[in-house]
Amino acid sequence: MLKLHSWRRSILQTLINPKPTISSHPNLNAHHPPPRLLLYLYRFLHQSHSVDAHDPPFTPTTKTHKPKTLKTSKRKKKKIQHQDSSNSPKAHNFPVNSDLPFDFRYSYSETSPSVEPIGFREPPRFSPFGPGRLDRKWTGTLAPAGQPVDSAEMAEQRDAVLGEPLSEDEIVELVERYRHSDCNRQINLGKGGVTHNMLDDIHNHWKRAEAVRIKCLGVPTLDMDNVCFHLEDKTGGKIIYCHINILLLYRGRNYDPKNRPAVPLMLWKPYAPIYPRLVKSVADGLTFEDTKEMRNRGLNSSPLMKLTRNGVYVNVVDRVREAFNTEEVVRLDCTHAGASDCKKIGVKLRDLVPCVPILYKDEQIILWRGKTSRTPDD
């Protein structure tokens, strides 16, 4: 039995036992109620009944939903606490004082200290290390070291960290452990060369590994000796393996991660300064007509090599030198290398071959061997 209220009970009684009325329809029986009353009765019985008399039907029941609490692990809690402590003003001690004995640059292997820029694309007062974060002044291209460095003392410290030289068996063991492509202690060296922030990455890998695998790609692979020199000079390590574009940098026997040098990080990449024009309108030693003829001859000749973006250019210098034994002008196709890499390749070839770049057009490099006479034995 449904618990009915008084007002609903009265309505139900009137629907079930209606008063006798005179119907105009001849077939309508008094014992059978009209269809409209049956519809009312059907709707009434299917309504939701509530205890409160003033509560309308179809009112949803109120349930208290407890908010779901996210269960955080102990590791996440420690990480959050570490972030909060690191973001606190007491955690930062600025400016950072670094004892590294060299000038800070964005790239050590791809910039030449002997070439001075003629202009800047941004004000030199904006240091990429951040305002007030470094005790060195940024000049637009570098942050010079404050005090002069004693090279003999630095060499002694480096030898003390390296310790005794590795034996052949130890070198073979390290090479076999770190030279493979699935090594998780790898750093990719791109067109920026040996950058400043890469030094910090190397020391971070040296905390848990004796050596680091460095994979070189792009423009720096034209001069791998230069890359090896700057890696050893700036980190204090030792190159124990060099195969094409793969290097292994050893940290040393007496390396202590707790006493590693402080390397302040660059917060952004500074804009490259403006340097003097590389290609002159008239090459040195030629007239205007001769220069024009050399350029047309180079554009109409077949390319010596086709260089791709982020490729391995280890054998480019030797190929250009061999070509200059028989040819006076050489063309390099850098269609897929990009305009910026094309200019960097020309600058490096000018110093390494040596030669004279006389034209950059449609990502094509035209090189002239110059007035110096060459023989096949050179």
Automatic annotation (TrEMBL):
UniProt-listed Gene3D superfamilies: YhbY-like
UniProt domain CRM: residue ranges: 164-262, 284-378
A Pfam family annotated for this UniProt entry: CRS1_YhbY
Keyword set, alphabetical order: mRNA processing, mRNA splicing, Repeat, Ribonucleoprotein, RNA-binding, Transit peptide
Gene Ontology CC annotation, any one: ribonucleoprotein complex
SUPFAM superfamilies: YhbY-like
Comp. bias (Basic residues): 63-80
InterPro entries according to UniProt: CAF1P_plant, RNA-binding_CRM, YhbY-like_sf
Stretches for region Disordered: 52-96
GO MF, one annotated term: RNA binding
Single biological process term from Gene Ontology: mRNA processing
Domain of life of the native organism: Eukaryota
Protein name in the entry: CRM domain-containing protein
Source species: Escallonia rubra
